What does this fold into?
Amino acid sequence: MSETRVMGQPLTRLEGERKVTGRAPYAYEHPLTDPLYLHPVLSTVPRGRLTGVDASAAEALAGVRAVLTPYNAERLAGAGDGEFAVLQSEEVSFHGQFVAAVVADTPETAREAAALVRVEYARAPHDVVLTADHERLYRPVGEDDEGPASDTEEGEVEAALERAEVVVDQTYRTPTEHNNPMEPHTTVAVWEEEPGRLTLYDSTQGVHVVRASVAGVFGLDPERVRVVAPHVGGGFGSKGEAHAHDVLAAMAARVLPGRPVKFALTRQHMFSLVGYRTPTIQRVRLGADRRGRLDVVVHESVEQTSTVQEFTENSAMCSRWMYAAPHRRTRHRMAALDVPVNFWMRAPGEAPGMYALESAMDELAQACGVDPVELRVRNEPERDPQSGAPWSDRQLVRCLREGAERFGWYGRDPSPRARREGDWWVGTGVAAASYPHLYNPGSVAVVRYGGEGVYEVSIGAVDIGTGAWTALTQIAADALGVSVSRVRLRIGDTDLPSASVAGGSSGTSSWGTAIVAAARAFAAEHGGAPAPGAVARASAGEDTVDEGYAVYSFGAHFAEVAVHADTGEVRVPRMYGLFSVGRVVNPRMVRSQFLGGMVMGLSMALHEQSFRDPRYGHVANGDFAEYHVATNADVRDLRAEWLEGEDPRATPMGSRGVGEIGVVGTAAAVANAVYHATGVRVRDLPITLDTLVR
It folds into this structure.
């Protein structure tokens, strides 16, 4: 390999051998002396107050070191964020809330003792059901706020709908979904009284954001909190910030100083404590002429949040930039319910929002008698409809047309229920994909020359399984003009320079930009023959996104489905995605990200749904036995490709994010294919056999 041409090479994971041989420590696995183990007690009512906690039987069990309750837990310094107000009052706000915790010598003892804690409640009326006409719907931002969830309106929407030759007016629903990464949320907390330092070995997407949150909760100087996360087994957004379990583990460690306290959530715990994708009820209205040219787009979404803390999914935002229409409206309304806090899940907003919009576009194509690919091409905007700015690199039309050719789209019979192979109805569907280029300028990188041609590159980024260890090494090697073997990357620790969270497909862009800036600073300060110990430091803010352009990634998804004529069983024999994401840093890992996102979109279309029991407020299928996700048998001929090119307006590497665009639009492509196969339009996900048979 050339000393300088390392970006774009399909390197295997640099940490791969350590992972497959078990030498890469995840949060629970760091070797610590004489650890203790925590097991929580969760509320069994969705709303009310504790009237008493009897921990005597648990405390009498041999090996139990402490039982924490709201009556003996320390008062936290900064629990203004309701999610972090752990054991701070008798109030119960949702089923599954922490109401006590046991710390013991073994995990088995902790779990046994937790079952012995007796909790009494005064139960209050609760509301856990989201409806489109909920009596307490509200705007998630103030009247003068121009935030992402604010209402937007351009032109004369209602008049445009009245005069439109063709109108689609439909409501699409997506259910509660849970992230469920392979590694459960875990933290190991160690409190050292001297010098008064808290260390968390945490499964997180951002060590610095966890440090900031935990330090604030406990009133500590952030420099007295260290968070370590060299390897993380997935997150899909749920590990993007600290959660209540981090606070509880740290609280226990401060009660038992010097002893590490290990707390790994069970799979069942994760259905109430670490976020989920909110259910959405989305009404989409499209008005067009008979050739399918849009005149008006209206996208209105109703979502839920928690009474504990507000989080908005912003699922209507995608309709602000996708297609050209002079009259447009987007709106979000929220209902605060007695449910756990919702949070990021891969492509929050875009994943459910593009399902609704791209399903409606398919219905418009059917109503106009226009090919669904051609309909989208006809509505391609010359500039960003939201800002009026020129596009940095919008290649959606090319993705659609070239993707259609590669998939074998053209020549199909456009009529629904036109192709039958034995017992199976077969159809094809298409959907566009888009994701904004997100960038965080606060990340900092340090380059240090260690001698003998080896450079040490340090940044507090986190690899959540996406390949950051390898991609950042390639970026550093490319920027320094050396081979990968001459770069030693250090990440995953707050003792390293500050880095933004691995979220919003922004990690590689933000961290890579900081590394490039540091490499340039190093060259400027030390030239081509540095002395051992030479060092340079730079922020990602020194190389920013070109503010004069609208920067997004785009793609097109194509799916073929087969639906059994008698049972309604849905299979997806093949899916194909073609994407435009600028320069690809590592093709092997980018393909993995695309395919993983497409599998998640397939799972969203056909399987994933968390059932919240309205009587008790809990998720009734809160385990992998009943919460179904796509598995090997569901994934057959799955292919992802991308357009060659680069986008220097986005990053100095010419790259844009790839982590989330793979899931955006996939569910709509599958749903549209199901309609083409059967003539049955399912607008509520997931698409299960009963909806088709019925």
About this structure: The longest strand covers residues 294-306. The two ends are 59 Å apart (CA to CA). The CA atoms of residues 52 and 437 lie 50 Å apart.
